[in-house]
Amino acid sequence: MNSSESSASVTFAVYSSLRLNNATLLICISVLYVSGLCINLFLLLVVCVESGLHRPMYLLLVNLCLSGVMGSSSVCPHIITRLLADREASLPGCLTQVFFINVYSGCVFCILALMAYDRYVSICKPLLYHSLMTPAKVRLMLLLLYSGLGSSSAVQVFLTSRLRLCRHQVDKLVCDSLAVANLSCENTPLINVYGLCCAVCWVLCPCFLVIASYVHIFTVVLKSSRASQRKGLQTLTPHVVTFINFSVASFFGVIYNRMNHRVPEAVNIFTGINFFILPPLLHPIIYGIKMQEIRQSVKKLMKRKMFL
How is the chain split among helix, strand and coil, in percent rounded to 5? Predict the structure, then answer.
């Protein structure tokens, strides 16, 4: 990025048309964001404090919470700042947001895929579980995941930063790679192809792994006894709900990003909240409510606090 491009600014036209709804949106997004932060941090505290939860599934849950905090924190302060004062954003700041958005979206799908695989091994191959899913192996998989996502996102941001911009107005609440690429003076086939490859690697492949794992699990569960079926379905419900929720939000986000013309304000708001704010809020709630061990650990912590 040359000096002239690095000093360029990006304006968000959508905020100027939201003037009448600024106060309502500001309160709504602030409450959802702070609530999500508190719930995620509380769940992180519970898992870290309770030694009985230091197992692969809960290690993945901690990283799902961390990815949610990263995703919402990369977007919500930006939205809140723009609602308070409709100011321009620097291009480097915009590209930084692109990096974290890419990491967040890929990270959630990959962690949900690892969770689905964990449940598959636990239910379909229980005798091999402690050899296949050790904490050390999970940490290694997470390290590879973060390294791969960070590298691919950095390359995408670098390619985007090399573009010469003819326009500086984005019709969305936040910056994303395609929105910045659309500001370019030229066609961007390389960035489009690279972005498609990243989507296949970090979204479609994890989705296929999740679906394949759940198909195998449901096949095994349906052949078992009524009690085992009930227990298996109770275990799988939060995973399926979480996966469907984030997949639907991502589907709407992809369609929204491909719209080159100006979209209605309601679509702008709905897409941003549905992808960046609601999943980080719902993920810990779903797991906190549905997982019995989490509820028991919370009760233990509350009892300890009462007797201190």
Answer: 80, 5, 15
